[in-house]
Task: structure prediction
Amino acid sequence: MSRTITVEGDVNAVDTRTLLTGQGSVTAPSLVVPAGMTKIKKIIMTAAADGLAAGHVVHFIRLGGSAVLNGEQTIMFGSDDSIAVQTGADAAPSLGSLFHLKDVDIDVRPSDTITIAGESAGVDVGDSTFAVTLVYGK
Amino acid sequence: MGKLYRSREGTIASVDTKTQLTTLGSETAPGPLMVPAGAKSLKSVIVAMGTSQAVAADGSMFIRLEGPGLPEGPETLAVGSQGVAVATGGHGSRTAIEVDLDIPVVPANEILVFGENAGEDVGDVTIGVTLVFQM
Result:
């Protein structure tokens, strides 16, 4: 049996730990690990940047909170880079790619709260939006 | 037993220059990356990279893992490449790569993580590395 939780949020400054707590129309989804779930089995992570600043960043998440048994876990999952276009030209879109990490095997405590934070490191590329899905199991 | 995920990142500013990755975003001094107590092996490595695209050039990127935490010696992994014809206008979005490994480690000892740009100088490169330890 599996259970899932998806959170999303904007990460608009580089080198800034940003809690991902929204879920679109649901502003505060529960971050309590479902009863009976003892592992994070898979993680799906994606990010897209508007590229309004010339820079290059890597994106990563931080999994923490009292539910994560072995302390904070940090996982890189993608990058964005951008350089300004010539005057009058259109910039290329950022087609945010999806990183599906399988066999994650992070120990968690059921019925306790997890925190999911997103962060970018490097040279700021503008605003970014992140989405993360955790797949719980036993 | 589960896995533990430890990360570092940094920016490489020159070609053919071994550059240690020592920061982690908002953590400017996270300290040495130690092999966790009880870890049996380095099970995989996850790497993400982005470049400034500020030079009309083409280069490849790789990482080096070194230090007393790796009893069999240094390891190297190719992690990506990038090139542009003109340095005006571009936007890249890349997914990370995960490389499955099974490298012995020495718990409570440090692993040094380096990034490097080879080939031509593509400008600045930011590389993020996650080491996945099997407990």
